[in-house]
DNA sequence: GTGGTCTAGACCACA
DNA sequence: GTGGTCTAGACCACG
């Protein structure tokens, strides 16, 4: 099940993003074990070193902890999910607002822009 | 007036963003001449090679054209501004929605998130 | 009574440190029997293999001896405690002085640093 | 000028320690450029990837910043040296006190231990 | 089995 | 030239 990576963002960060998404979506829960480095490497079709780097990164960010000889686990803290979601949500909004502001847009125009996006897509509420 | 560039985005693209902002905000109009590569390089405190690359990039995107021996000019097309703004706006919104969707958020939650951002900031209109 | 181990130091050495502490503090005396590997493993909440390794290590260091079929005992030598304490103390001081010297600090500054540490902690004598 | 690394601590962290020492001792000042990754790798007799990791680590710790295409520089902040020294000094003292306390030693005994160390070494004030 | 480190050598974008 | 990423393959300590 090899995957592909397109963005210019480093693969090890793209993998981190996927893991974050899985956690936020509830596909992985607090306390769960992540696949081993080697296993994940095979799944993703990348080198184990790349996954190693991913795991080191998300551990540094405090989302995950490694238990020696046992593996890498999502921190067993029930608040980790909402905390992570809020953090990522905030980051996205701030980036979005900052960029739109540079285009000379007002708050109302930003909100309206997002609303219109969904209207034009019709009932595409996935 | 040396500036500083911190983002991980390449400097030459950050410079392009600034130029786009200036155009969209009306500080530069269609048909206007951009500063020479060397002049801009001094203003920005970066290497002329970097500005060269910026100009090549925004020319490639069709925003600007080079007249030999005269310099680089914003295309003398009255619609260029709104066209540029619309394109960038659309890009921002699509990226934003895509990212937020990955966090498992609904359309309503996205809109609400942006609105709340401005409420919490209060009269912080910069 | 499961415990937790955070330090980057190997768990089997952390367990050894605890045993050394117990001996030096007099909680265990020369000639005393240590808990069995399995018992200790349960107490510490770690794998028996890990304790096995701990016992091998402290035996190798001459603090403990294994009597076949009977268990692991602290050597029945009255001088073992002060000897162990002196050795560990010396190791700590040498490491400390070496590290501080690398920071360009003088002997006086080292002594003063330790003294000040306790002053600032005030009556925080645990 | 190949060097050797003995400690069980990873090489990339030992290199970091050396750089920190150089900064604290004033051999490198704020704003100075560090040797390039490749150059340092040759000096230290290790693989460039290892140095890369060192540089990434000390950048993450805020001691150093990289200017794209130019190199890695000690942050141009006059307070960086004393700040770094204080941080490392504090770390050393806390570790030392913690370890000595585990040996059942009192504050006075710790101070005395360090003082005696220097006395026995005689006028060995390097 | 697990994660962590290291080497070798390659390729890339950036300035 | 610089730092950053990635692969391939190896070795290690730990549990």
Query: Quick one: how many beta strands of chain A?
Result: 2
Q: What percentage of residues of chain A falls in helices of 4 or more residues? A: 55-70%
Element-by-element helix/strand order of chain A: HHHEEHH
SS field, number of helical segments of chain A = 5
Rg of chain A computed from alpha carbons, rounded to a whole number of angstroms: 18 Å
Structural class of chain A: mainly alpha
Output mean pLDDT of chain A.
90
Largest interface here, residues on each chain? C-D, 32 and 31 residues
Number of structurally distinct domains of chain A? 2
Outline the biggest β-sheet of chain A: 2 strands, antiparallel
End-to-end Cα distance of chain A: 25 Å
- Uncertain regions spanning at least 5 consecutive residues of chain A: none
Strand order of the largest sheet of chain A: 1-2
CATH architecture of the largest domain in chain A: Orthogonal Bundle
CATH topology of the largest domain in chain A: Arc Repressor Mutant, subunit A
């Amino acid at each position: 099940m090899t995957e592909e990576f397109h963005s210019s963002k480093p693969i090890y960060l793209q993998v981190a993003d996927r893991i974050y998404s899985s956690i936020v979506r509830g596909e992985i829960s607090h306390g769960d074990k992540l696949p081993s480095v080697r296993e994940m490497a095979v799944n993703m079709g990348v080198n184990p070193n790349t996954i190693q780097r991913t795991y080191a990164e998300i551990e540094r960010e405090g989302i995950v902890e490694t238990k020696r000889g046992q593996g890498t686990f999502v921190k067993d803290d029930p608040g980790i999910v909402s905390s992570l979601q809020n953090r990522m949500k905030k980051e996205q909004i701030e980036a979005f607002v900052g960029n739109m502001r540079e285009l000379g847009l007002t708050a109302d125009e930003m909100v309206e822009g997002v609303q219109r996006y969904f209207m034009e897509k019709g009932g595409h509420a996935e």
